C-alpha cells in the first residue's frame, strides 16, 4: 500500500513545494486584500475605481487562463524588455520566468481580489463609535487604521479568510499544469510511467484532504480565540 | 467602422476566420460541458441534500463522506483519477463503456458532475436546515405529510435561500471547466492554448479568451440577478 515505487521522496518534496506555494500566495493575497479594501473605503474615487476594476476583472476570468497568461505572457514581456534594454542602453538584463513565481503571483492576485471583499466587509463591521472614540483621543488616520480598525476587523474577517484559504489550497494544484514539479506533477508523471493512476493520485488527494481538514480545525480554534469576550446573542 | 480598426483587422495574422472558428468551437464545448454537468449535478444534489438532512447516520453519513471528499480535494486530482483511472479498471476495454470513456469528454463530464453535485448538495442542505421552524409547524398543523411538506413548503422556500450561493457555484464551475483542456479537450482554454503555441502570441491568445469567459460570467451574473429578483419579489419594499 505505502510502496510508492521509489517516488516517495519526490512526492514528499512536491508536497513541500505545494505548501510553500500556498503560504507565499496567501501572504501576497492578504497584503493585496488589505490594500484593495482600504482603497475601496478610502473615499477617493480613483482608488476605489481601480480596486473595483481589479476585483471585477479577477472574478470574471478562470484561474487557469490567468495563470497561462502570466506564465507565457510574462516570459514574452521579459524578453521584449530585455531586447529593448540591450538595444537602447546596452544593459544585459534577463531572467527566466519560472512556474513557481508565476504561480505565486497569479494565485496571490486572484485571492487578493477575494480578500479585498472579505476585508471590506470586515472593516464595515467595525463599530463607528470605536472610530469616533479614536478621533476624540486625537489619533491620526493611520493610527486609527493600525491600532483600532485592523485589530477589530480581523475578528470579522477570520471566517472569510478561512474560506478563501481552503479554496486557495486547492487552486495550488493548477500550477502543475504550467510545469511546476509539485506533488500533483510528480504523481501525474509517476502514474503515466507506472500505469497506476490510483496508486499515486489517491495519496496526493489524501495529503490535500489532510491539509484542508487540518486548516479547518485551526481556523475554528483561531475563531474561538478571536471571539473570546464577545457576547454572542442568538 | 473606424479606419484604424479596419487596418488592424487587415494586418493581424492571428484573428482570422479560421482561428475565430476554433474559438467558437471551444466556446460550444465549454458551454456544453458546463451546462450538462450543472444540470446533472443539480438533479443528483437535490435528493442527496434531502437525505443528508435525515437524522439516521447510516443514511446521512455516506453522503457526508462523499461531499467531504469531493470538497476537500482539488478538482484537477479528481479529473486525473477518473481520466487515467477508468482505463485501468480490469476488463473495461472489452465492454461498451470503453467506447464512451475513451473520449476525454466523458471522464471530464463525470468529474465535473461529481464535484458540482458535492458542493450543490451542501448548499441545498444549508438552505433546507435554515427553514424557519414555524413554516414546518404550520404545514404539520395543516396535516401535510412528509412528502407534501417537502414538495410544497420546504423545497420552494429552500430554493429561494439557496439561489445566491448556487449562482456562485455556477460561476465557479464555469471557471473550473478550464482544466478540461489539460486532458486534451479543446474547450475555450484548449483553443487558446492551441492558438498560443501556433503563433507564440500569449497576449492575443489568452486575453481574447479571458474576455470570452468574462462575457459568459457577466451573462450568468445578470441572469441569476433576474432570477433572484423574481424569486424574492415578495420581499421587495412596497415602493420600488
Automatic annotation (TrEMBL), chain A:
Membrane topology recorded in Swiss-Prot or TrEMBL: Multi-pass membrane protein
The ABC transmembrane type-1 domain is annotated at 15-219
Where do the TM regions start and end? 15-35, 47-73, 93-114, 198-219
One short Pfam name that applies is: BPD_transp_1
PROSITE patterns, A to Z: ABC_TM1
- GO annotation (BP), single: amino acid transport
Q: Does the keyword Nucleus apply?
A: no
Query: Is the Membrane keyword given for this protein?
Result: yes
Query: Sorted alphabetically, which keywords does the UniProt record give?
Result: Amino-acid transport, Cell inner membrane, Cell membrane, Membrane, Transmembrane, Transmembrane helix, Transport
Q: Which InterPro entries match?
A: AA_ABC_transptr_permease_3TM (IPR010065), ABC_transp_permease_HisMQ (IPR051613), MetI-like (IPR000515), MetI-like_sf (IPR035906)
Gene3D superfamilies per the record? MetI-like (1.10.3720.10)
State any GO CC term: ATP-binding cassette (ABC) transporter complex
- Where does it mainly reside? membrane
| UniProt name for this protein | Amino acid ABC transporter membrane protein 1 (PAAT family)
Could you read off the lineage of the organism from its UniProt record?
Bacteria, Pseudomonadati, Pseudomonadota, Gammaproteobacteria, Pseudomonadales
From TrEMBL, chain B:
On whether Transport is a keyword of this UniProt record, the answer is yes
Gene3D superfamilies, per the entry: MetI-like
- Claim: DNA repair is one of the keywords in the record: no
Read off the InterPro entries from this record.
AA_ABC_transptr_permease_3TM, ArtM/GltK/GlnP/TcyL/YhdX-like, MetI-like, MetI-like_sf
Gene Ontology CC: ATP-binding cassette (ABC) transporter complex
Q: Where in the cell is it found?
A: Cell inner membrane; Cell membrane
What is a single Pfam family found in this protein's UniProt entry?
BPD_transp_1
How does this protein sit in the membrane? Answer: Multi-pass membrane protein
* Recorded GO MF terms: transmembrane transporter activity
- The residues covered by the ABC transmembrane type-1 domain are 27-224
Name the UniProt key words of this record, in alphabetical order.
Answer: Amino-acid transport, Cell inner membrane, Cell membrane, Membrane, Transmembrane, Transmembrane helix, Transport
Q: What processes in GO biological process is this protein linked to? A: amino acid transport
Q: Where are the transmembrane segments?
A: 30-51, 63-85, 105-124, 170-193, 205-224
Entry's family note: Belongs to the binding-protein-dependent transport system permease family. HisMQ subfamily.
Q: What is this protein called?
A: Arginine ABC transporter permease protein ArtM
Q: Which organism is it from?
A: Marinobacter nauticus (Marinobacter hydrocarbonoclasticus)
Amino acid at each position: 500500500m505505502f510502496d510508492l515505487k521509489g517516488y516517495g521522496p519526490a512526492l514528499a518534496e512536491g508536497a513541500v513545494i505545494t505548501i510553500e506555494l500556498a503560504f507565499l500566495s496567501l501572504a501576497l493575497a492578504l497584503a493585496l486584500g488589505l490594500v484593495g479594501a482600504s482603497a475601496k473605503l478610502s473615499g477617493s474615487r480613483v482608488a476605489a475605481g481601480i480596486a473595483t476594476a481589479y476585483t471585477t476583472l479577477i472574478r470574471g476570468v478562470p484561474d487557469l487562463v490567468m495563470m497561462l497568461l502570466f506564465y507565457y505572457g510574462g516570459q514574452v514581456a521579459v524578453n521584449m524588455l530585455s531586447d529593448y534594454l540591450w538595444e537602447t542602453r546596452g544593459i544585459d538584463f534577463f531572467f527566466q520566468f519560472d512556474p513557481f513565481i508565476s504561480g505565486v503571483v497569479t494565485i496571490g492576485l486572484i485571492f487578493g481580489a477575494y480578500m479585498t471583499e472579505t476585508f471590506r466587509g470586515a472593516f464595515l463591521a467595525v463599530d463607528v463609535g470605536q472610530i469616533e472614540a479614536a478621533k476624540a483621543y486625537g489619533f491620526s488616520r493611520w493610527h486609527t487604521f493600525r491600532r483600532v480598525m485592523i485589530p477589530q476587523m480581523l475578528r470579522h474577517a477570520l471566517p472569510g479568510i478561512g474560506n478563501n484559504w481552503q479554496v486557495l489550497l486547492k487552486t495550488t494544484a493548477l500550477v502543475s499544469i504550467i510545469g511546476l514539479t509539485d506533488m500533483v506533477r510528480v504523481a501525474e508523471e509517476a502514474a503515466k510511467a507506472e500505469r497506476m493512476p490510483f496508486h499515486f493520485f489517491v495519496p496526493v488527494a489524501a495529503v490535500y484532504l489532510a491539509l484542508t481538514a487540518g486548516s479547518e480545525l485551526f481556523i475554528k480554534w483561531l475563531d474561538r480565540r478571536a471571539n473570546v469576550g464577545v457576547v454572542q446573542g442568538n | 467602422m473606424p479606419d484604424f480598426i479596419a487596418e488592424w483587422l487587415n494586418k493581424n495574422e492571428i484573428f482570422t476566420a479560421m482561428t475565430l472558428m476554433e474559438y467558437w468551437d471551444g466556446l460550444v464545448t465549454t458551454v456544453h460541458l458546463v451546462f450538462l454537468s450543472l444540470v446533472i449535478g443539480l438533479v443528483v444534489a437535490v435528493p442527496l441534500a434531502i437525505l443528508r438532512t435525515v437524522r439516521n447516520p447510516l443514511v446521512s453519513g455516506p453522503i457526508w463522506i462523499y461531499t467531504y471528499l469531493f470538497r476537500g480535494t482539488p478538482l484537477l486530482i479528481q479529473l486525473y483519477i477518473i481520466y487515467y483511472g477508468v482505463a485501468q479498471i480490469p476488463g473495461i476495454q472489452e465492454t461498451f463503456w470503453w467506447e464512451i470513456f475513451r473520449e476525454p469528454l466523458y471522464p471530464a463530464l463525470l468529474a465535473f458532475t461529481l464535484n458540482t453535485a458535492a458542493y450543490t448538495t451542501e448548499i441545498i442542505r444549508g438552505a433546507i436546515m435554515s427553514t424557519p421552524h414555524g413554516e414546518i409547524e404550520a404545514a404539520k398543523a395543516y396535516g401535510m405529510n412528509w412528502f407534501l411538506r417537502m414538495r410544497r413548503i420546504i423545497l420552494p422556500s429552500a430554493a429561494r435561500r439557496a439561489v445566491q450561493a448556487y449562482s456562485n457555484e455556477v460561476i465557479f464551475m464555469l471557471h473550473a471547466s478550464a482544466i478540461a483542456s489539460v486532458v486534451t479537450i479543446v474547450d475555450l482554454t484548449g483553443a487558446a492554448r492551441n492558438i498560443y503555441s501556433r503563433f507564440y502570441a500569449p497576449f492575443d491568445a489568452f486575453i481574447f479568451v479571458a474576455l470570452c469567459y468574462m462575457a459568459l460570467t457577466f451573462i450568468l451574473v445578470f441572469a441569476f440577478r433576474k432570477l433572484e429578483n423574481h424569486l424574492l419579489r415578495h420581499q421587495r419594499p412596497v415602493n420600488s
